[in-house]
Amino acid sequence: MLKISTLLIPALLATTLSGCGLFRTYEVKDANLVTVSYDAVGDMQKRLTQKLPKNSLIIVTTLLNVDNLNKTSAFGRIVSDQIASAFHQSGYQVIGMELPIDLFIMKEDGSLQLSDDTKKLLKRYHASVLVGGVYAPGKKNSYVSLRMVDTISKAIISSTDVSIPMGPDAKLLMTPKEVGSAGARGETVAEAASPEAAATDTAKPAAEKTTTDSLE
């Protein structure tokens, strides 16, 4: 009897330990957002369907929540800021803005459908390209889609998609925020397109100045 018990104990322990392994959860680790953002910009530059001369002016808009384009988050803001920095370091003039622009609604001819206010904004700044996108937070990953749009033809000239692990930092950054709410660094579409805004163009937001070469 003693021998049987002695043999059963190790077997039971092995079964218990293996069972614990089945229910063990593994914490998702954060990716380096800076690296992801810079790699995404490099990928979009490689995929350009037309030439974009250095020193061209690019407007980078804050990434929006795919389920509600009036909402963003610290995640959407910091990733768009990093994208703006990457373009700036690549030799382009950059203005960062927080605008509820949907770069995924297309007309039948394949061009982007933009609001009149957005068109006025682009005309005001004489920007060559508009860069923006959306993100969809998931349980283990956040999925980001980015697009570059020619402001003249309204055609998409480059795009890329990235998947970012939802580690503890990424989850913390995902708290929803209204577009243009406290912490926003740019103008709303209506403000930027208004005559009053044009009259006070010299008083650009501080964050806008930090990512823009001299435009005078």
UniProtKB/TrEMBL annotation:
It comes from Methylovulum psychrotolerans. Residues 206-216 have a biased composition (Basic and acidic residues). Signal peptide: none annotated. Residues 39-167 form the FlgO domain. Residues 177-216 are annotated as: Disordered. This is FlgO domain-containing protein. Residues 187-205 have a biased composition (Low complexity). InterPro entries: FlgO_dom.
